[in-house]
C-alpha cells in the first residue's frame, strides 16, 4: 500500500505541476497549577481598560527558558512532531455550585482565523447562535518568537485587532496573568471568563462540547437542543475523532513539522491512507455528512483541516501525494457543501489569515516567507 502510494505520488508529481501554497503549527504542555488572579508579590500590571487583575512578578529568565526559546521548535529530537496537552480544563456548566455558570456576555474567545482548532470553536459559536452571547478577539495572523500577538489599530490588519478586553499585546500575557508559572505554549483558542478574570479552558475539543449544550437557556429557540454530539451518535463520533485527529487533523502537522525523512514519510502516508478512508466513508454514507443526514461533531472537526488542505498543507506541509479538488471527489463535494451552503463554515474561514500565517510564521520551513499565489481560487465554486 505504502509503496504503491509512493510510486503513484512520484509519477504524479512528475506530470502534475501543483500550484499551491501553505499553513500553521502548534500545541502545548501539561499541568494547570493555576492561580486565579491572586496577589502575592505583585509588581506587574499589564491589563488596561478598567480591568484590575494584578499579575505576579515572575523572573523574566524563567519565562524565557521555559517557553520563548523553543516557540518555533516544532519537532522533537527524533524528528517527530508531538502536540502537547492543553492545560486549562474547566467547564462552563449550569449545575448548581458550578463556578463557571452560563451567562450572556460573561465569556470571551481568543482565536486565530489561521488555526484549525480555534476555527472549530468559531464554527460552533455560529451554528449555535452564540454570537451575541460569547464575544471574540482575533489575533494577528503572524505567530512569532513570543507567540500570538494582537494587531495594533494602525497596522490595519483586516479582521484582527487589539485586545480590547484585557489590553494585552501578546496572548502570552493572558496566560501569565492567570498563571505566572505557566510553562506550556500560548495557544488559541482560549475561553476567557470576564467575571472571574481567568482562563476557563484552552482545549477546543472541550470548548465546542460546552457550546453545544450549556447555553441552551440563553440561545434563541431555533438553536435550543441542537447538539452536534447527540447521544445516539456519540460512540461513532468518538471512534471517528480518534483516528481522524491522529492521522488527519494532527497528521498534516506531523508531516509538515517532521525533521527527518522517515518521520515525514511515515506520517504523510498515514495521512493519505486516512483520507482514502474518509472518501470511502462518505461514498457509503446516505450523505451529505460523515454519519449520514445529520451534521455532527465529526464533520465540524474534519472541516477546518480539509478546507486548508489544497491552499496550504499540500505545498507548505508537503502533503502533496494528492489534492482534495483533483483526487477526492466525494470529500470535495462534502467540503463544498459545508463551505458554500452553511454560513457558519464560510464566515469563519479567512484565507488571508490562513495562508499568511503558515507561510510567514514557519520560517524554518519557508525561510523567505513567500506566500504562494495559488491555488486559484482557494475553494472551487460548487459548479466545479
Ligand atoms: N489542543 C489544542 C491545540 C491548539 C493549538 O495547537 N493551537 C495553535 C494554533 S493552530 C497555537 O495556538 N499555537 C501557538 C504555539 O504553539 O505557540 C486545541 O485543540 O485547542
Automatic annotation (TrEMBL):
<dbReference type="GO" id="GO:0071555">
    <property type="term" value="P:cell wall organization"/>
</dbReference>
<dbReference type="InterPro" id="IPR040079">
    <property type="entry name" value="Glutathione_S-Trfase"/>
</dbReference>
<comment type="similarity">
    <text>Belongs to the GST superfamily. Omega family.</text>
</comment>
<dbReference type="InterPro" id="IPR036249">
    <property type="entry name" value="Thioredoxin-like_sf"/>
</dbReference>
<keyword id="KW-0961">Cell wall biogenesis/degradation</keyword>
<keyword id="KW-0808">Transferase</keyword>
<dbReference type="InterPro" id="IPR036282">
    <property type="entry name" value="Glutathione-S-Trfase_C_sf"/>
</dbReference>
<dbReference type="InterPro" id="IPR004045">
    <property type="entry name" value="Glutathione_S-Trfase_N"/>
</dbReference>
<keyword id="KW-0560">Oxidoreductase</keyword>
<dbReference type="Pfam" id="PF13409">
    <property type="entry name" value="GST_N_2"/>
</dbReference>
<comment type="function">
    <text>Active as '1-Cys' thiol transferase against beta-hydroxyethyl disulfide (HED), as dehydroascorbate reductase and as dimethylarsinic acid reductase, while not active against the standard GST substrate 1-chloro-2,4-dinitrobenzene (CDNB). May be involved in cell wall organization and biogenesis.</text>
</comment>
<dbReference type="Pfam" id="PF13410">
    <property type="entry name" value="GST_C_2"/>
</dbReference>
<keyword id="KW-0963">Cytoplasm</keyword>
<protein>
    <recommendedName>
        <fullName>Glutathione S-transferase omega-like 2</fullName>
        <ecNumber>1.8.5.1</ecNumber>
        <ecNumber>2.5.1.18</ecNumber>
    </recommendedName>
</protein>
<feature type="active site" description="Nucleophile">
    <location>
        <position position="115"/>
    </location>
</feature>
<dbReference type="GO" id="GO:0045174">
    <property type="term" value="F:glutathione dehydrogenase (ascorbate) activity"/>
</dbReference>
<dbReference type="GO" id="GO:0004364">
    <property type="term" value="F:glutathione transferase activity"/>
</dbReference>
<dbReference type="GO" id="GO:0005737">
    <property type="term" value="C:cytoplasm"/>
</dbReference>
<feature type="binding site">
    <location>
        <begin position="185"/>
        <end position="188"/>
    </location>
    <ligand>
        <name>glutathione</name>
    </ligand>
</feature>
<dbReference type="InterPro" id="IPR047047">
    <property type="entry name" value="GST_Omega-like_C"/>
</dbReference>
<feature type="domain" description="GST C-terminal">
    <location>
        <begin position="230"/>
        <end position="358"/>
    </location>
</feature>
<dbReference type="InterPro" id="IPR016639">
    <property type="entry name" value="GST_Omega/GSH"/>
</dbReference>
<dbReference type="InterPro" id="IPR010987">
    <property type="entry name" value="Glutathione-S-Trfase_C-like"/>
</dbReference>
<feature type="site" description="Lowers pKa of active site Cys">
    <location>
        <position position="358"/>
    </location>
</feature>
<feature type="site" description="Lowers pKa of active site Cys">
    <location>
        <position position="313"/>
    </location>
</feature>
<feature type="binding site">
    <location>
        <position position="148"/>
    </location>
    <ligand>
        <name>glutathione</name>
    </ligand>
</feature>
<feature type="active site" description="Proton donor/acceptor">
    <location>
        <position position="253"/>
    </location>
</feature>
<feature type="binding site">
    <location>
        <begin position="203"/>
        <end position="204"/>
    </location>
    <ligand>
        <name>glutathione</name>
    </ligand>
</feature>
Amino acid at each position: 500500500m505504502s509503496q504503491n502510494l509512493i510510486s503513484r505520488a512520484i509519477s504524479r508529481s512528475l506530470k502534475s505541476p501543483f500550484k499551491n501554497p501553505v499553513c500553521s503549527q502548534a500545541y502545548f504542555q501539561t499541568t494547570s497549577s493555576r492561580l486565579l488572579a491572586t496577589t502575592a508579590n505583585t509588581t506587574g500590571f499589564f491589563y488596561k481598560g478598567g480591568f484590575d487583575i494584578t499579575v505576579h512578578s515572575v523572573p523574566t529568565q524563567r519565562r524565557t527558558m521555559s517557553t520563548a526559546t523553543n516557540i518555533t521548535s516544532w519537532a522533537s529530537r527524533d524528528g517527530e512532531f508531538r502536540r502537547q496537552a492543553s492545560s486549562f480544563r474547566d467547564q462552563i456548566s449550569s449545575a448548581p455550585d458550578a463556578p463557571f455558570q452560563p451567562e450572556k456576555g460573561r465569556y470571551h474567545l481568543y482565536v486565530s482565523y489561521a488555526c484549525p482548532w480555534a476555527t472549530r470553536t468559531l464554527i460552533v459559536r455560529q451554528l449555535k447562535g452564540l454570537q451575541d452571547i460569547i464575544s471574540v478577539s482575533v489575533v494577528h495572523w503572524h505567530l512569532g518568537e513570543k507567540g500570538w500577538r494582537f494587531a495594533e489599530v494602525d497596522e490595519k490588519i483586516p479582521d484582527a485587532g487589539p485586545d480590547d478586553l484585557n489590553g494585552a499585546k501578546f496572548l502570552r500575557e493572558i496566560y501569565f496573568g492567570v498563571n505566572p508559572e505557566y510553562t506550556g505554549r500560548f495557544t488559541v483558542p482560549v475561553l476567557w471568563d470576564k467575571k472571574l478574570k481567568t482562563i476557563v479552558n484552552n482545549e477546543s475539543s472541550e470548548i465546542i462540547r460546552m457550546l453545544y449544550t450549556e447555553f441552551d437557556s440563553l440561545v434563541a429557540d431555533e438553536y435550543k437542543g441542537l447538539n452536534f454530539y447527540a447521544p445516539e451518535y456519540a460512540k461513532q463520533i468518538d471512534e471517528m475523532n480518534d483516528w481522524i485527529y491522529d492521522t488527519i487533523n494532527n497528521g498534516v502537522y506531523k508531516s509538515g513539522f517532521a525533521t527527518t525523512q522517515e518521520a515525514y514519510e511515515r506520517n504523510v502516508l498515514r495521512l493519505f491512507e486516512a483520507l482514502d478512508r474518509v472518501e470511502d466513508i462518505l461514498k457509503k454514507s446516505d450523505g451529505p455528512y460523515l454519519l449520514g443526514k445529520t451534521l455532527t461533531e465529526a464533520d465540524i472537526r474534519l472541516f477546518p483541516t480539509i478546507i486548508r488542505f489544497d491552499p496550504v498543507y499540500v505545498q507548505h506541509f508537503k502533503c502533496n501525494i494528492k489534492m482534495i479538488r483533483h483526487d477526492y471527489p466525494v470529500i470535495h463535494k462534502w467540503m463544498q457543501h459545508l463551505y458554500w451552503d452553511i454560513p457558519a463554515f464560510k464566515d469563519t474561514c479567512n484565507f488571508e489569515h490562513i495562508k499568511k500565517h503558515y507561510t510567514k510564521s514557519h520560517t524554518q520551513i519557508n525561510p523567505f516567507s513567500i506566500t504562494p499565489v495559488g491555488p486559484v481560487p482557494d475553494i472551487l465554486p460548487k459548479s466545479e
